[in-house]
From TrEMBL:
Name the UniProt record assigns to this protein: IS110 family transposase
Domain of life, source organism: Eukaryota
Keywords: Coiled coil
Domain Transposase IS110-like N-terminal: residue ranges: 9-107
GO biological process: DNA transposition
Database matches in Pfam families: DEDD_Tnp_IS110
One GO MF term attached to the UniProt entry: DNA binding
Source species: Nephila pilipes (Giant wood spider)
InterPro entries: Transp_IS110-like_N, Transpos_IS110
Keyword Coiled coil annotated: yes
Coiled-coil stretches: 76-139
Amino acid sequence: MANVFVKLCVVESTGGYEKLVIKLYNIAVHRAHPNRVYAFAKACNHFAKTDKLDAKLLEKYAEFIAKNDEVIEYIVSQKQEELKELRAVERNLNDEVHANKCRLHKVTRKAREYIEKQIEFAKKQLEQIRQDIEDIINSDSDLKEKSKLLTSYKGVGRKTAGILLIEVPELGRLDNKE
């Protein structure tokens, strides 16, 4: 694939094994549900079943979904994968802190002490996770540059920039039409 320009890669769901290969090339990916591909094949009168013919069918399917603005995801780098995992933990801790704060006024004094300790511990973990996220972003020149650009906008701080870089990995990859 070194000398081939690939705009979109279509793969059938195979339990995540496709991530290992696609991640190396940093390209847009559409993980096609087998039933949708099968329905598309029927609509195209494609009934032969060989690997070569299946590849041609997936190529037609890719052209079709690219024209029709189907959902395309980006399989991301190892650092972005780590950022996504940290973001998920951050979100869970935020939810935990919120739930515990709501619980505080409904419990006895002794239970309140434990809940307050849980909140304090979760807040410390949140600080550490946010620092880890910032460290990872700063260790990657591409992410660091994107973060710098995002924070140059009024109202966008480091935390918001980090969330955008994690939740919207296609930032900076799309052209004006996309």
